Known about the structure:
By secondary structure, the chain is of the alpha+beta class. It contains three helices and nine strands. The termini are far apart.
Amino acid sequence: MAKIIGIDLGTTNSVVAIMEGGQPKVLINNQGSRITPSVVGFTDKGDRSAQAARVAREAIEAGTKQALSDLNAVQPYDPGKPSEIKVEFKWTGPVDKLRHRVGVEKLDDRTIVSRANDWWTAWRQFFF
């Protein structure tokens, strides 16, 4: 009887399965996992290693955890003061609705601008 094998070759990971007794069975790789990294790297000796994707993923996760552990390490975005937000709508309805708000000015039938001392206040004039 012919053997049936199915391979899902993904960009990051791949899976291999065979048919046994009319049911698919996902094969386990030599590292004990059902998914196998699609990325192959080479060791210093020139040997192939499928560890590249797993190691890269672990490095990204560790870097993300480190970056998020101290939120003061990255300064919040500050677009400057005073701030101006200009919005052009596809139709005139929103302009007519928002043009009477404090700090909001109608430039033409479809465009309004919100000006304030800081970005948050300028944005808030549109939505609250």
